[in-house]
Amino acid sequence: QVQLVESGGGSVQPGGSLRLSCAVSGYTSSRYCMAWFRQAPGMERVGVATIDSDGSTSYVESVKGRFTISQDSAKNTLYLQMNSLKPEDTAMYYCARVHMVLGCRWAGTLVYRYNHWGQGTQVTVSS
Predict the structure, then answer these.
(1) Is the pLDDT score of 102 beyond 90?
(2) Is the pLDDT of residue 100 over 90?
(3) Mean pLDDT along residues 100-115
(4) Residue 21 forms beta bridges with which residues?
(5) What's the rounded Cα separation, in Å, for the pair 50 and 4?
(6) Which of 60, 77, 103, 127 has the fewest C-beta atoms lying within 10 Å of its C-beta?
């Protein structure tokens, strides 16, 4: 069983920064894909960024240059550094993981391909 626990959300003004963390525990595999998703009220959950077990990353266009996904394998922790935050970044942020040999090449940002989810952490960007 894999457990994911997010932290680091909060309220910030536009232009501010936050760093989200996702602690991973339980059974893990050497081949996986991890991702950050977000869901605004009344909207679908959408992928923001992914990172493969080999370290390769991808981002949706709306966060490129502002968000950075990273991982600390020794600490079993996933991060999302969010800079230059905008009101439209307001959402519940979730980390997700799937163990798959093909990693993120297979999972991408498709919600249904991830079978381990955290409980979410709220990010609110408002003046």
Answers:
(1) no
(2) no
(3) 92
(4) 7, 79
(5) 15
(6) 127
Token pair, residue 120, equals 């979410």
126, 92, 118, 121: which is closest to 25 by C-alpha? 118
The amino acid that residue 82 corresponds to is: M
Separation CA 89–CA 92 (nearest Å): 9
pLDDT digits (tens, 9 = 90+) for 9-41: 999 999 999 999 999 999 778 899 999 999 999
Q: Tokens 């979730």 belong to which residue?
A: 94
Among residues 24, 19, 8, 46, the alpha carbon closest in space to that of 116 is found at: 24
- pLDDT value for 27: 79
- Pairwise CA distance, residues 110 & 45, whole Å: 10
